[in-house]
Amino acid sequence: MASVTSLTASVHQRLADALSAALPEAGSADPLLRRSDRADFQANGILALAKKLKGNPRELAAQVVSGITAPDLIKDIEVSGPGFLNITVADGAITENLAARAADGDRLGVPLNPRAGTTVIDYAQPNVAKEMHVGHLRSAVIGDALHQMLDFTGEKTIGRHHIGDWGTQFGMLIQYLVENPDQLAPAADVDGEQAISNLNRVYKASRAVFDADEEFKDRARKRVVALQSGDKETLEMWQRFVDESKVYFYSVFEKLDMEVRDEEIVGESAYNDMMAETARLLEESGVAVRSEGALVVFFDDIKGKDDKPVPLIVQKADGGFGYAASDLSAIRDRVVDLHATTLLYVVDVRQSLHFKMVFEAARRMGWLNDEVTAHNMGYGTVLGADGKPFKTREGETVRLEDLLDEAVQRAAEVVREKARDLTEEEIQERAFQVGIGAVKYADLSTSANRDYKFDLDQMVSLHGDTSVYLQYAYARIQSILRKAGAETGGPAAHPELELAPAERALGLHLDAFGDTLAEAAAEYAPHKLAAYLYQLASLYTSFYDKCPVLKAETPAQVENRLFLCDITARTLHKGMALLGIRTPERL
Ligand code: ARG
User: Fold this and answer.
1) Chain centroid, CA 110 distance in Å
2) Residue closest by Cα to atom 11 of ligand 1
3) Is residue 210 part of a domain?
4) What's the confidence (pLDDT) of residue 212?
5) β-strands 294-297, 289-291: how paired?
6) CA–centroid distance, residue 119 to ligand 1 (Å)
7) What is the pLDDT of residues 323-342, one digit of tens each?
8) What percent of the chain has pLDDT over 90?
9) Which of 71, 89, 107 marks a domain boundary?
């Protein structure tokens, strides 16, 4: 593996060196390098620095320019305006940089983060015995992308699917199953669809008995106690719900084209044995106090409508532990046993108050501190075309599966229309990759904290900022490369060649892949990677419009342009894969 220093970083370093040579008293000064329309880069930092040291910015800039000798890297550098520097990179440097990236296989020269730690990422956490709906989409899609992006930057990344598999509602379900054992088939015998329809049926039936029959209610309550104290028969019944639900979850994750590992499914129940100790530690340290029989944590800045403090409830007055106790126990587990340095939660923004309280309590306990931090991504809502939270026409929550099926169906129409030499089977396969890609991309290309409209027409459009556009760009490149294989020597870098403006623009953008990825991963911002890829496809399109590839002037130019095609395709492929989106070879 050979990571590649980006051109941006190299130019930055040269400028910084020249700047501190010209201004030794400034110490290490940041030239503030930006990509620019005027030249390849513009450095703006000299202005502020000159002001601070009461010098003349244009003079200082001129001094920096004369201090730079790097003809291999920098073709042109000039002072502009009140003291900016415009910098043009040498064509050969661009091509050589890309050649080094191309030689680095799947990593494309992207360096590993030298300060990588261990991140535990909590995402895709559906609830046992319940259907997954549109609300579960974002956590799965964003979490999966972040999992892969962080991993690629060298972070040790551990997934945790904190599924809702514990709590009082299981008393009712289990009691019903104890009394009607044939209502749930063995998990091994059902597929996802049967599993969820069985679970739905049991849920409804048990609810009906629970609401109508006082004595059943009583038995259900006793069942909760039996569950929490580890009664064997009760646990066996509970396990059947979990197993059947997992069959269903896996089927939905498969529809989402998303890999979920069994050892990363660690639900609320997994922390059951820790909860009493968590409560004891909180109480002994005084972080939690008894209030009306319950064990709670108070916060000065968290108050309800009536100005009364809203506490975090660790243990209810009846002794039961709830959501907060399992989250606090999970923090201990993730910090102490998994040695996490970062805890990342991809959970609906509506739970942000819960996490604010949980994190603050954990900080008071010292479980979180300067070395171990926690963040909730707090994503926004998926809206319907009317701008209101997405519902079916009947006003019900949308089942996640229905939504995915519909996306695949729409994608099939688009693929079929364009397909020339695809078999029906290939059309179906592409429809899946295009449809699911469209749903994921629409989600990931909006900054996570914002709401977005679920608009299938827009999502599968061939024009504009969609995954289909990116997939077509990729497939088009593959088709050129296939054709070239027969006609030419194939892709090869030729640093001795001059580059056309469209080639330079494409090349410089390709160079920024690693920097963009590092930034997107550090900020938990997949939309920055999505925006990068969209721009890459756009720059490729203008390159392709302006620069004939197979009909270029010389064989060397053909090879060099094919080389640009190849590395563009590989970068698109890698970037899309990190977002969880496929790039079919033919479309
Ligand atoms: N199962 C929860 C829900 O569907 C989300 C769990 C989020 N993660 C956590 N550690 N609390 O709302």
Assistant:
1) 18
2) 327
3) no
4) 96
5) antiparallel
6) 18
7) 999 999 999 999 999 999 99
8) 82
9) 89
Task: Average the pLDDT over 129-148 and give the result.
Answer: 96
- The pLDDT value recorded for residue 179 is 96
Mean per-residue pLDDT, 2-30: 88
Ligand 1 pocket, residues with Cβ under 6 angstroms: 122, 125, 127, 162, 164, 327, 345, 347
In ligand 1, the atom with minimum distance to the C-alpha of 327 is 10
Residue 529 to residue 552: CA distance in whole angstroms:
31
354 shares a domain with 315: yes
For range 469-479, the mean pLDDT: 96
Task: Please tell me the total count of domains within the chain.
Answer: 3
Measured between alpha carbons, how far is 445 from 70 in angstroms, rounded to an integer?
A: 38
Same domain, 571 and 442: yes
Pocket test for ligand 1, best of 121, 134, 162, 400 (most atoms within 8 A of CB): 162
In which domain, by residue range, is 52 found?
7-89
Q: What share of the chain is helix, strand, coil (3-state, %, to 5)?
A: 55, 10, 35
Pair (573, 509) in one structural domain = yes
Tokens of 350: 């509506």
* CA-closest residue to ligand 1 atom 8: 162
555 pLDDT above the threshold of 70: yes
Are 358 and 415 members of one domain? Answer: no
Residues 454 and 486 in one domain: yes
Nearest protein CA to atom 9 of ligand 1, as residue:
162
Ligand 1 centre to CA of 566 (Å) is 42
Give the tens place of pLDDT for each residue, 163-205: 999 988 999 999 999 999 988 888 889 999 999 999 999 999 9
Q: Is residue 393 pLDDT above 90, yes or no?
A: no
**Burial class (CB within 10 angstroms; exposed 0-12, middle 13-18, buried 19+) of 37:** exposed
Does residue 355 share a domain with residue 279? yes
Give the N- to C-terminal CA distance of the chain in Å, as an integer: 32
Q: Are 414 and 559 in the same domain?
A: yes
Q: How high is the pLDDT of residue 1? A: 64
Which atom from ligand 1 is nearest to the alpha carbon of 135?
Answer: 4
Q: How far apart are CA 13 and CA 70, in angstroms?
A: 11
Judge if 441 and 472 occupy the same domain: yes
CA of 327 to the centre of ligand 1 (A): 9
Mutate to test the pocket of ligand 1, among 139, 321, 351 (most ligand atoms within 8 A of CB): 351
Q: What is the CATH number of the domain that holds 461?
A: 1.10.730.10
Residue range 68-98, pLDDT digits in tens:
887 799 999 999 999 999 999 999 999 999 9
347 Cα: distance to centroid of ligand 1 (angstroms):
7
| CATH code of the domain in which 72 resides | 3.30.1360.70
Q: Is residue 128 part of a domain?
A: no
470 CA distance to ligand 1 middle (Å): 33
